[in-house]
Amino acid sequence: MPRLTRLTPDTAVGASRDLLADLVSRHGQIGDMVSTMAHSPAVLGGYLQLSRAMGRAKLDRRISERISIAVQALQGCRLCLDSHVNAARAMGVDEEEIERARTGTSADPAIAAIITLALQIYREPTSITDEQVIALREYGYSDRAIADVVGVVALNILTGAFNLLAGLTPESGTSV
């Protein structure tokens, strides 16, 4: 059961009302997470800005979805995990790779290396080494793609932690 109520453009106030009204006018409907985030215009605005920015990331989307699966498998947000698994499937990531991502790896050594980096960013960023970054470059990742991993992890921490706080689950309503 959700712990926080959903807001609409009619029930939200101030900046949140404007943000929700804009989203509804552009998309027709909004998910539970976004409508619940509206309790804090700072959180909602920050989420929307980071989400838009990460849409311009150079990191391949099939890789970022696997990173998201790995992070959400650890963080425990089933709503986010389901959303990222479905997105990975829609992009053609096979079930074996989705399962590997849940355990923090990949059959492809280059993807396994970038997932490892993401999990270190999530768990213990002080453990990242120069050699690790050099190896990622040798796999063909640009500095921009490597930096994008921080954004993917940060976005997942924000959405997962929010959903867990708000009590949002796949059973509690609509998607993110």
UniProtKB/TrEMBL annotation:
Pinpoint the Carboxymuconolactone decarboxylase-like domain residues.
45-115
Top-rank lineage group of the source organism? Bacteria
Q: Which SUPFAM superfamilies match?
A: AhpD-like (SSF69118)
Q: What is the recorded name of this protein?
A: Carboxymuconolactone decarboxylase family protein
